[in-house]
Amino acid sequence: MDSIDATVAELSAEPHELLARLREHAPVSWLPSLNGWLVTRHAEAVRVMRNPAVFTVDDPRFSTAQVVGPSMLSLDGADHARHRAPFASAFRPAAVRTRFADFVTAEAERLVTSIKPAGTAELRRGIAGPLAVSVVAKVLGLGDVEISKVLAWYDAIVGAVSGVSEGNGVNPAGIAAFGQLSARVRETIALRNDSVLADAAGLTADEIVSNAAVMMFGGIETTEGMITNAVWHLLECSDGLGQVASDSALLENAVEESLRFEPAAAVVDRYATQDVDLGGASIRRGDLVVVSITGANRDPLVFPDPDVFDVRRPNARQHLAFAHGPHVCVAADLARLETRTAIKTLAANLPDFRLTHAERPTGLVFRKPQALHVEWSIVD
């Protein structure tokens, strides 16, 4: 097999030129740094994610399952459907509006009001992260649990998953955090309160806990990145955040374009269940196959002028930022709602809202600016 000299550092920092070369010359490339195949073209990415019988998540190497146990994220076939089905109805567009829209709006207003007097803020940790955490706590019915405690559980579980990915065992901090989350989720199940966990008929308590951990992870990490990326893109684009926020249809499309341009979740992993040819590459059974969402989202065969951020792009929604096939993000419409609401609330409440400094997005698996500094005029 041919190999491509691409390091994890290059893929984590500014990968777009590298991904473009791979997409053109070797859309399915063996990367020694990943010890697996990297898929960078849209057509092959869709093929992988649509076919769990050949490209599965159900593999002992899947790091998240080693920390939180089997869940909808790490199962395929009938088991995946059984884990996912109890939660799917709660995250359909109409249900999201009914159950969560008022809460998301109120929480966004509260957060923006709290920073307004300062005239300046760092938005990733000032708005995007806190909003994502509050919504996750609401979704999971965690009640009056402190947001800092949810973040501590999240950080420890993410650290444990990352450690497993790097070849280490599950660390004690991750075990302890998962135990605390598990206890709180079990209390929620017993209360039968208004949370999506109350809908999980047919799953054991352990299975509900594992899926709750997965929803917490996805709901915080990717939504924080999605909001941060979208605000950054709109502050830098020619239309500007305020103009886009005032037009609901344009804002909706702009959020999709932001997801295409810099997806918060940059890659997804699959494992080949059999020998298979893909994009000119001969993949062997058991090989790791990493789909670059970032690369597929800038495929010029699908998106003309892919390196241009265009809020009016007619096919922006063909992006793969929420994955594809049976593992498409179950709460994608809730994440969209949070992002649109955050943007509208910022535009409506902070006069002359502008960017002062943003770090470039980084990360191999999850990509976002680590800091997004803004300022606005203080009006008495």
TrEMBL record:
It comes from the Bacteria. Coiled coil: none annotated. Pfam families: p450 (PF00067). Belongs to the cytochrome P450 family. This is Cytochrome P450.
